[in-house]
Specification:
alpha/beta; 2 domains; elongated; 7 strands; Dna Topoisomerase Vi A Subunit, Chain: A, domain 2; 5-stranded mixed sheet; Helicase, Ruva Protein, domain 3
């Protein structure tokens, strides 16, 4: 391409995961046909998100404020915590309308191949939260992958001495499937029919 402006825009668009150069070019050319006002609104939405979007100080979910709407909702059962990998899993579970507790977002899963260990995740705050008491059940809602299972095993070892019930979603979600991509019906049933988590020593 001869246009440096177009090239830079395509490079930025292609830096997003799952976006190749051909798709990036198509999207950039579509944006180029929009009015300056439309492009300004498009760009401003991302700048505002970068400046104002926060991480909930209680659970790690995304929020416009220090505490997310789920944690502020008095109708939610605060004695029930669902542990998830990231905010996409919160969105996936919420879309099923089957879970009435609160969440704890780890910010990832243990993956030695990717250099991600327990210290890189939001685990210590979960342990601290449970140590304060008042929690009756912790649900592991992690993807049924090797990394997800490894994380569940690690969490179980950290939490098994607390007087709580530790459960996991059932395998209605296919093994190897990331939670965020599971269909709502399977995911909803997995939450409703969760079962005790057993660790094979």
């Amino acid at each position: 391409m001869k246009s440096n402006y177009l090239n830079r825009a395509v490079e930025q668009m292609a830096s997003l995961p799952g976006i190749g150069r051909k798709t990036a070019l198509r999207l950039v050319l579509q944006l180029q046909r929009r009015t300056k006002e439309e492009i300004s609104a498009f760009a401003s939405s991302f700048l505002e998100m970068s400046e104002h979007l926060k991480s909930c100080k209680s659970c790690g979910n995304i929020s416009d404020n220090d505490t997310c709407e789920i944690c502020l909702n008095e109708s939610r059962d605060r004695k029930l915590i669902c542990v998830v990998e990231d905010i996409r899993d919160v969105m996936a579970i919420e879309s099923t309308a089957t879970f009435k507790g609160v969440y704890h977002v780890l910010g990832g899963i243990i993956s030695p191949m990717d250099g991600i260990g327990p210290s890189d995740l939001n685990i210590s705050s979960l342990v601290d939260k449970i140590s304060l008491g008042g929690i009756h059940e912790v649900v592991f809602a992690l993807s049924p992958t090797m990394e997800g299972d490894t994380t569940s095993f690690y969490l179980h070892k950290k939490l098994k001495f607390f007087p709580i019930q530790i459960t996991t979603i059932t395998r209605g979600v296919s093994v190897g499937t990331e939670l965020q991509y599971a269909d709502e019906l399977s995911l909803g049933r997995s939450i409703l029919y969760r079962q005790p988590f057993h660790l094979s020593d």
